[in-house]
Design a protein that fits this description.
Blueprint (H helix, E strand, L loop, with lengths): L3 E6 L13 E5 L3 E5 L14 H5 L3 E5 L5 H4 L5 H5 L3 E7 L1 H4 L3 H8 L15 E7 L2 E5 L2 E8 L5 E6 L3 E4 L6 H6 L5 E5 L13 H8 L5 H11 L3 E5 L7 H14 L3 E3 L4 E4 L1
Helix pairs in contact: 8-9
Bound molecules: zinc ion (ZN) (2 copies).
Length: 267
């Protein structure tokens, strides 16, 4: 059995013409999984993805955390899923200290959005997701708390995919991802900054909430995954910097890739 993973938004923080903010889909036989609802969710409207969401029997949207670059697309959902049911799995209060339904109904309401959560033209069912393993959409979904500016979670789907964004470098990620086919991990800086006194401060600030490409590659190697995709790329850095990040990561873990928005990996 195969599953298609498509990164719809490969950037973090600020969308650019090339890289929308974080969103990815995993097409399973029984369900469509969506990871994060950044501005990249808008790419689902491209004609080529129409069968992915129209044919899906169940739609499950997983939120890693509530930073706006990961939830801006929640208000796009009626464009794709009007009249349908979408299960929104958000980190449980035990993880974030906040009730997911309260948070989301406070965002999807006037004057931020013309309709309140309960008035949306789709059935958005909010399901708090605790740490541990869950059976969702015919798959095993594991959830693990990460270290970020505000708490975030990583997801593992069967042995296919680990989606770990908005996290500081974390030894637990390697254990969590052990033997997975694909690790999708954030990379905010290259990591070369550590070696240079002039840019050392950048590394120190970044590492409070984020990971370098080198660190992500080291976790991928430790976890013995087949492939690593770097995501949540820094919009303030140009393409040349991102290429350098990729080269740095490949020195440590050769099976590293950077995807364009809309690019698919067959699992
Ligand atoms: Zn982010
Ligand atoms: Zn964040």
């Amino acid at each position: 059995m195969t599953a298609n993973f498509t990164l719809l938004g490969s950037g973090g923080w600020i969308p650019t013409a090339r890289r929308e903010t974080t969103c990815a889909i995993l097409s399973l036989p029984d369900a469509l999984f969506i990871f994060d609802a950044g501005t990249g969710l808008s790419r689902l409207l491209e004609e080529r993805f129409r069968p992915e969401y129209e044919a899906a029997r169940e739609v499950h949207l997983f939120l890693s955390h509530y930073h706006l670059d990961h939830i801006a697309g929640l208000v796009y959902l009626p464009a794709m899923f009007k009249g349908r049911t979408v299960h929104l799995h958000a980190p449980a209060a035990q993880i974030t200290g906040e009730d997911p339904r309260e948070i989301i109904s406070n965002i999807i309401r006037k004057p931020y959005n013309p309709q309140a959560l309960d008035d949306l033209p789709l059935d958005l069912i909010i399901e708090p997701l605790a740490e541990g393993e869950h059976a969702i959409g015919g798959a095993s979904v594991q959830v693990r708390k990460q270290i970020h500016a505000d708490p975030s979670v990583a997801f593992r789907v069967n042995d296919w995919l680990v989606f770990a964004t908005d996290t500081a470098d974390d030894p637990g990620t390697a254990t969590f991802a052990r033997g997975a086919r694909l690790l999708v991990h954030e990379a905010w800086i290259d990591g070369i900054e550590e070696q240079d006194p002039a840019t050392e401060q950048i590394a120190r600030e970044a590492y409070v909430a984020h990971t370098s490409a080198r660190q992500a590659a080291a976790r991928a190697a430790e976890a013995e995954v087949d492939e690593l995709v770097l995501c949540h790329l820094n919009p303030l850095r140009g393409d040349a910097y991102h290429e350098r990040m990729l080269a740095s990561a490949r020195e440590i873990f050769p099976g590293t890739r950077i995807l364009e928005d809309g690019e698919t990996v067959v699992l």
